[in-house]
Structure formats: structure tokens, C-alpha cells
Amino acid sequence: MLLGMKKMIIPVAEPNLGREELNNVVKAGKSGWVSSGEYILKFEKEFAKYIGVKYAAAVSNGTTGLHLALLASGIKKGDEIIVPDLTYVATANAAAYIGAKPVMVDVEPDYWCIKPEAILKAITKKTKAIIPVHLYGNAAEMKEILKIAKKHRLLIIEDAAEAHGAVYYGKRAGNLGNAGVFSFFGNKIITAGEGGMITTNDKKIYERVKLLRNQAQDPKNKYWHPEIGFNYRITNLQAAVGCAQIKKLNSFIDKKRQIFQWYKKYLKDLKDITLNSERENTKSVYWMISIVLGNGVSRKISRDTLRNLLEKDGIETRPFFSPLSKLPMYRKERHLSNLTAYNLSKNGLNLPSSTTLTESNVKFVCQALKKHLL
What we know:
By secondary structure, the protein is of the alpha/beta class. It has 13 helices and 16 strands.
């Protein structure tokens, strides 16, 4: 826990690091290989094995991962990319970096991920790809999305930044489309401080990603760059942390799921809120355990008022993401009427979700919620 000036603060998320991470970093530092090095290759290999794909390429962060995955898949200026309206801004920004057009569509009311029916309505001759986001650790409805993609010959780039280890019908997120992208930012289930990973079974995408992330330098001809590339590499020090973290991923997921059960138990008396729903035949990793306030509660107390009251109790929370179509740079982009995304954004709240939480911490948060909502 973090100690404030006057009282203990329960953060919404914090990293769970131990001796193993420190030992790896010390080894990498002593080796002299702090930028490139063997931990990068090891991290890639272990992550690919965990996700169940042939290839994994480490990058500097999740956003650059999305950018490279789109580029490596052949996305070009003027192409349309269908994205959920309720997601972190990086999902749309990655398309915009290329000059492609993000098309924002609505999300499912129960699972909060991109709505397949909304995807169908948004497809045009310019549509080239779909970026389903496994929001807050819950898998999107990939069977329907894959059917749509196959019928209309569209690429699927999974935004799995929040879904390390999530399972959909026996397959892990990041192994369901043409490529998957993960983030290792400090608030993710596993972290390297910063960093990302692109997963794929497509060798062409993999080779293209490896070229572009290293300033497009010809691997057989040092300092020869046949095209414009990017400095999107992860460091050996970051990968050293990642190698220690991935060994703990299953135990972290188990803890996340236990924390969700604690919340479910202690919030059962609050009838006008909705907790994360887990889709049938999936396994959510509950990156963020979240609630949505119902209309009755919303009239009594707003989400933002509740956040302020909880902060005074020493409890940090986060609002749901703002709809992309509400942001200044995307208001003029083509989007449909995304009422569910707007409602969730207005009434959704991420609760403390760190794997460091104890049951007493969760009970304290729930007692505070009841105090303000009952």
C-alpha cells in the first residue's frame, strides 16, 4: 500500500514486484547489456509460448505495438479501421498515426466490449481492419467478429493491452486474430515498467514488425535503412523485469479472480450497481474490477461525486474511458450512435484492483461504497 500524508491510500492499481525482478535487473546491469540483450529474446520466447503463438516481438509500449501491428499488416493512409468507442485513446491513435480513419462503434451493454452488430453496420469499401479491445480483461465476442472479418476480408488486430492471460473458448487473447498487442505499463497485470508485445502466427507480420521497430535497418547490412522505420525497441532491463513477471502471471490472474469474488460477496446488497460480467466459455482476468451505477443511483449520487467521496476515505478509483467520438480530434470522424458507450463512460467506475490487495482491503472499499450508496 501507498502511505499518504495522513492516512493509508488504497490505490486503484500498483505493480507487484519482488526479489526475482530485482535479481534479473542486476544481472542485466552487470552484464553491460542494458539496451539490447538476451533477456529480450527470452521474454519474447516465453511470452509467445504462454499465449500459444509462433511469434512474439517486444516493443517500447502498447501504443507503438498497435502502430507497428497495423503497419506490418499493410494498413495505409485513408483506410478505415473499426474500433470500439469505449477504449483507451491509443486504440484510435495508432490508426491515426498512419493516416487511417478510426471508425468508432458501440459496445455491448453486458460485457462492455465492441458489439459485433455495430461492426457490421460500419463496414464500407474502405474498411480494412477491426481492432477488438478486450476491455478491462474481458474477452470480446471473437467468434462473431471472426465471421465478420472472414466474410468481408478484414484484418483483426486484437488490443489485448488489458487482457494478459484472458481466455476465449480455450484460446488466449492475442491468439485469436491476425495479431495481438499487449502493454506492460506499470498498472497492467504484469509490468516491465513500460513496454509492449506483438503476438502473431503470421511470419510476414512478425518479420515486418522486427524490421520497422529497429529504424528499418537491414539485418544483413548494418546502418543500411531502405525505408523509414521507428525506434520502438524495448530495453534489456525492461525485458529482465518482464521475464520475472511472466512466471507469476498465472498466480496474478488467480488473485485477480479471487479479488473479484470478494467484491461480489461484499457488494451483493447493492442492487443498483453492475459488476464486470464474464462471458460464457471465457475466462476474464479482471484487470480492472469495475462497477456501473444504475439509473436510480445515478439520480441520487453521480459517479464523479462518488469518486470524490471515496478519495476522502483514502480510496483511489478511476472513471471509465471517455468515448473516443467525444474527444476533440475524433468528433468529426465517422461514428454511429453509440449510446451504450456514452452511458457506461458516464456511470462506470474502476475500483482498486491490485494483486497486492487483501480481503480486508476489499471489504473496506465495499463498506465505503455502501456508506455512500445505500
